Every structure is written in C-alpha cells, then in structure tokens.
Amino acid sequence: MKRILITGGAGFIGSHLCERLLNEGNEVLCVDNYFTGNKQNIIHLFDNPYFELIRHDVTTPFYAEVDQIYNLACPASPVHYQYNPIKTIKTSVMGAINMLGLAKRVKATMLQASTSEVYGDPQVHPQSEDYWGHVNPIGIRSCYDEGKRCAETLCMDYHNQNNVAIKIVRIFNTYGPRMHPNDGRVVSNFIVQALQNKPITIYGDGSQTRSFQYVDDLVEGLIRMMNSGSDCIGPINIGNPGEFTIIELAQKIITLTGSQSQIEYLPLPQDDPMQRKPDISKAQEKLKGWNPNCNLDNGLQKTIEYFKQIIV
Ligand code: NAD
Ligand code: UDP
Description:
Blueprint (H helix, E strand, L loop, with lengths): L2 E5 L4 H12 L3 E6 L18 E5 L12 E4 L6 H4 L3 H22 L2 E7 L26 H21 L2 E7 L2 E2 L10 H10 L4 E4 L5 E3 L1 E2 H12 L9 E3 L4 E3 H12 L5 E4 L14 H6 L9 H15 L2
Helix pairs in contact: 1-6, 3-4, 5-7, 5-9, 7-9
This protein binds nicotinamide-adenine-dinucleotide and uridine-5'-diphosphate (UDP).
C-alpha cells in the first residue's frame, strides 16, 4: 500500500484517478480547492477509510508524508482558465513549486500533469515530445500554456538540481463521465447541447482538428508512468492519435444521441490551435503495453450515458 497525494482530485480526471488508486489498495489523499471540481465527483469514495479529502489551495504549501504525488490541480477548460488568468498561472507555477518542494522533503515521486497545449498552435504534425511548440506568450491562452511550460521547467530543475524524482506527462484532449456539464470544452458542450436539442456551437468553420482520448486510457497511462523506472522522466505524450475535425465530432454526437440539434457557427476564439494529434511512440515504448483502448464512438457512448443521467 502506498500513500498517494492527488491534487485536483475532485476534478474530472482526478476523481477517476482517486477511484482507481483506491481500488488497487492504496491510501489516497485528495487535495482540492473546488474551483472546477466538486464533492459529487468523489462522494462515492467517502466510505473508504483509506480516502481522505482536504480542502486546500496548491498555491500555498502543503505538508504530508506521502510516497507519490500526482499534481493535477489546475482548471483545464479555456472558459475556466481564462476566468482568472493570474490565478491560473499561479496555480501552475506556485502549485508545481509547492508540490516539488514537498516531493523533495519527503522523497516522493512527483508526476506533473502537463498538456498538449505546450505545443501551442503546432507547426509540426503529429506532435512528438522533441517539438518545442508554437505558443503565443501574451495571448488569452498563455496563462495556461505558459504556466504548464513553466511547471515542466520547474520539474526538470528540481530533478537536476535537487535529485527529485519527477515524471512529466503531456495529456491530450481527454473526455468522459464526470466532465462538468458547463465545463465549456467541446465534448461536454456538444453532448449537453445534443441531448437538449439545442444548437451545436461550432467555433470557426469546424475544420480544426483534435485527438480525443477516453479518460480510462489516460488514467492507465498516468499510473504506468508514475511506476516506470527512474530513467523514464518524460516528457511523454499520453493521448489517442485518432484525429477528427470539430465538424466530424459534432456529426458523431448528433448521430449517437439521435438529436434534432442544428449546427450554429460562432467566431473562432483567438489562438485556437488548428490541428492536434499526438505521436505516442515514446509512450508505447517506455510504458510497455500501454495503448489507447477505447475508440471515439465507444467513449462517446459511455459519456452520453453519463450526461443523460445528470441533465434533465
Ligand atoms: P478539472 O477542471 O475537472 O480539474 C481540475 C481540478 O483542480 C478541479 O477539481 C479544481 O477544483 C482543482 N483546482 C484548480 N485550481 C486549484 C488550486 N489552486 N488548488 C487546488 N485545487 C485546484 O480538469 P481536468 O480535465 O480533470 O484536468 C486535470 C489536470 O489535467 C489539469 O492539470 C489539466 O491541466 C490537465 N489536463 C487535462 C486535459 C483534458 O483534456 N482534460 C488535457 C491536458 C491536461
Ligand atoms: N469548440 C467548439 N465549440 C464549443 C467548444 C469548443 O467548436 O462549444 C472548439 C474549440 O474552438 C476548439 C475545439 O473545439 O477548436 C476544442 O476545444 P476545447 O475547449 O475542448 O479544447 P482545446 O481547445 O483546449 O483543445
């Protein structure tokens, strides 16, 4: 049994990770300030005596004896991370410093949830880990992109200077049950709109692409990365390389829900990346046997079933 700290554990991805690590017989400390997460996501874990929930903001130091730290605390949807951009970048930067400081003191391994956003609006396709990215440092997405880039830098510096055991994972667009219905991300928006027969809001002409990964595949990748050898520190891409235009996604969701929704075109937000697809050869090689297992149709079906239960 390991003692495992998960920051952002009451959020979408964090709640799945808490559940999986508890099921594997670990003790889980879930730290969250409930900015975008909520107790409902983890309420089913409250009866487990090895689960502990702590209201805490990672921009301030946290003290606990733990073996592993998954640092997931940070709003992930553009709508939420742009709501208070200064707080967003503080969360990434101060959060990483505080968690790396904790890892250093207690000799824990720290896994940083980084993002495909470090590649910005990529000029290399698909994106492999050696691509340095094409990020606007002063745009509306910068608080998130640059905060995550800085968190990666901090991980490498704590590793090189203080010998802290680190793991950096670049997560590509992930979806599944427990996304917030008002999260603002494309999969949740489209499913909620389709189930309510409201217009499906496509930003721009919908020709931009994303690669969508089902949450269980990500959680498997995160756990394998955390428990990989000390030579495997990343950064490593975890995503599903299936690439779809936003129009294709809308059409799939309309078909799977049997919706009457029409498509409504709205302006494309500033700096919205035109294409995104992970090169996952490094993950396949280093995290032996890891591969995304859930295709988009199956993952969407499970996510639609979840949203049917929570929206009226
Ligand atoms: P989410 O918004 O559902 O979860 C983030 C959690 O962090 C929430 O529970 C929120 O309350 C908490 N949080 C935010 N600021 C905090 C703070 N200052 N102190 C403590 N807790 C705080 O988002 P998610 O999709 O579950 O994302 C989890 C992590 O994965 C994030 O770090 C995100 O950047 C990263 N990521 C997600 C995706 C994706 O597609 N979902 C892609 C790339 C990276
Ligand atoms: N998008 C859209 N309609 C929506 C929400 C998002 O067309 O209601 C687009 C958005 O402009 C982007 C893509 O879908 O091109 C993915 O957006 P999301 O916010 O999910 O993730 P990110 O842009 O961070 O990859």
